[in-house]
Amino acid sequence: DAGVHSKAWYAATCDRKMAEDALYQSNKDGSFLIRKSSGQDSRQPYTLVVFYNRRVYNIPIRFIESTRQYALGREKSGEERFDSVAEIVENHQRTSLVLIDSQNNTKDSTKLKHIVRVS
Fold this sequence. Notes:
This protein is of the alpha/beta class. Helices cover 18% and strands 40% of the residues. It has a single domain, classed as SHC Adaptor Protein. The longest helix has 11 residues. The two termini are 23 Å apart. This is BLNK protein.
């Protein structure tokens, strides 16, 4: 267990569209939640959904079997790894998260500031 189920930012029953709608409604930079990934793949169990600059970013959270740790996005050398999903959230409440817009090839960054609850 990634330590997500008791957390305010975990939207257990939320799909991608619900998450995106909730974040657009919040309309605050740094709004976020974590949902189950659409694919139900054990190597990518969750998705971090972040609102910034009128856009919603869906960032995969990978589970690394060999180390039993979690990491964000595609695998890269020197990436940060965490022992739980909660550690990812806590870390990015203190340090900025890089947001990559693959369509426009731009980079932004924001901290995770506002928990969005999906009803």
